[in-house]
UniProtKB/TrEMBL annotation:
SUPFAM superfamilies: Tryptophan synthase beta subunit-like PLP-dependent enzymes. The gene is trpB. The modification N6-(pyridoxal phosphate)lysine is found at K90. Its cofactor is pyridoxal 5'-phosphate. This is Tryptophan synthase beta chain. Its EC number is 4.2.1.20. Keywords: Amino-acid biosynthesis, Aromatic amino acid biosynthesis, Lyase, Pyridoxal phosphate, Tryptophan biosynthesis. PROSITE patterns: TRP_SYNTHASE_BETA.
Length: 415
């Protein structure tokens, strides 16, 4: 378990940029994080790990990928977070935070969700631990993500539509913050990535670090050593930091955070929209959701809307720790566009029998384009499975005429 940066500052990044009313809650949470997570008070981490095992299905395998290894003439290993309960790495964090809320004596959970993945993970954890839970979700997202709305409600959570602004993730976060500020006494806010004010970035990293703790051990068991390169896709950056955490001190291991290059890295300022979500590669220092970090913004410092074909990477900021590690040269910030990700999606499905999340597919797009630069042994984190993305993939595959895809046209009418 890494305990670095316990003060919440990652160089100039991080910090606690929150309204005064939230400071008592932030201080209470920081105290709980230090006692229960860092010091394992009352056996918190033991219970967390036991629940990850029995409810979550951990450990997930680190699997040798035969056909990818053959294709690239490298040894490629897959960390299978797609096999975690719920189909993505998000449960590691949601379960950790809901359990922590219980230890803190909180009686109610709130969370925000964009595409619905973090909301469903939080709803599952809340049902498992018998905590009432309310999820804020933009109205537009609710209409785009019906199945996830039903999943949350099936697990007993209330889904509160947010109608302000464009009705997406940004407004949902503001609304959840407002709820938390009003109900700090009995409520915990489960943030979905390594973003937000301290202690969230460090705490979410520690809950996700189980990924690299297992991967390091499992790879050593199979190869007797460390990998040369570790790849993970980066939205807010929680699966990335979880996959990197236990390799950061190994100088020989190159770490690659693969961002969504979207349709272009060029920004049209007039539009106020970045056609990508590559905040590590193209963002500037700014404050977003309570932390100083790299943010997509225009020359006046206005936060821009981001874009990616994958909803889970579509975020204008990124975790402050990742921003710092990139500035330090420890993590390479790279990106691939929508088309490369879609091709990666089909390649992994065809070669390995694993349908990945569109977020994850970005890492495989990068592997395809740069395998010869990545050394002999490569670990790729499969952050989630792609069942949730089938409709998008069918639509986008047709629209863009993706080369390595099976013909979708003849089936799409019936779906
Ligand atoms: C949410 C999500 C991501 C992006 O979130 P991070 O915090 O960057 O990990 C990546 N992959 C999957 C499968 C997701 O659901």
């Amino acid at each position: 378990m890494t305990q670095k940066y316990a003060d919440g500052k990652f160089g100039e990044y991080g910090g606690q940029y929150v309204p005064e009313v939230l400071m008592p809650a932030i201080e209470e949470l920081t105290d709980a994080y230090e006692r229960y997570v860092l010091e394992n008070e009352d056996g918190f981490m033991d219970e967390f790990r036991a629940r990850l095992r029995d409810f979550g299905g951990r450990p997930t395998p680190t699997q040798y990928a035969e056909r990818l290894s053959e294709r690239y003439d490298r040894e490629v290993y897959l960390k299978r977070e797609d096999l975690l309960h719920g189909g993505a790495h998000k449960l590691n964090n949601a379960l950790g935070q809901v359990l922590l809320a219980k230890y803190m004596g909180k009686e109610r959970i709130v969370a925000e969700t964009g595409a619905g993945q973090h909301g469903t993970a939080t709803a599952m954890a809340a049902a498992h631990l018998d905590m009432p839970c309310e999820i804020y979700m933009g109205e537009r997202d609710i209409n785009r993500q019906r199945p996830n709305v039903f999943r949350m409600r099936l697990n007993g959570s209330a889904v509160n539509p947010v109608t302000t602004g464009r009705g997406t993730l940004k407004e949902a976060i503001s609304e959840t913050m407002r709820d938390w500020a009003t109900n700090v006494e009995d409520t915990h806010y489960v943030i979905g990535s390594i973003v937000g004010p301290h202690p969230f970035p460090a705490m979410v990293r520690d809950f996700q670090a189980v990924i690299s703790e297992e991967a390091r051990r499992q790879l050593d068991e199979q190869t007797g050593g460390l990998p040369d390169a570790v790849l993970a896709c980066a939205g807010g950056g929680s699966n990335t930091m979880g996959t990197f955490a236990n390799f950061v001190d190994d100088d020989g291991v190159e770490l690659y955070a693969v961002e969504a290059g979207g349709s272009s890295l060029e920004v049209d300022e007039e539009e106020g929209v970045a056609p990508n979500s590559a905040s590590l590669s193209t963002g500037e220092e700014g404050v977003l959701h309570g932390a100083r970090t790299k943010v997509l913004q225009d020359s006046d410092g206005q936060i821009m809307e981001s874009h990616s074909v994958s909803a889970g990477l579509d975020y204008a900021g990124v975790g402050p720790e990742l921003a710092r590690l990139v500035d330090d040269g420890r993590v390479q910030a790279v990106n691939v566009g929508d088309v490369s990700a879609l091709e990666g999606f089909h390649r992994l499905s065809q070669l390995e029998g694993i349908i990945p999340a569109l977020e994850t597919a970005h890492a495989f797009g990068y592997l395809e384009e740069h395998s010869e630069e990545l050394g002999e042994t490569i670990v790729v984190n499969v952050s989630g499975r792609g069942d949730k993305d089938l409709e998008t993939v069918i639509e986008e595959t047709e629209k863009r005429d993706i080369e390595n895809a099976p013909s979708m046209a003849e089936f799409s009418g019936g779906i």
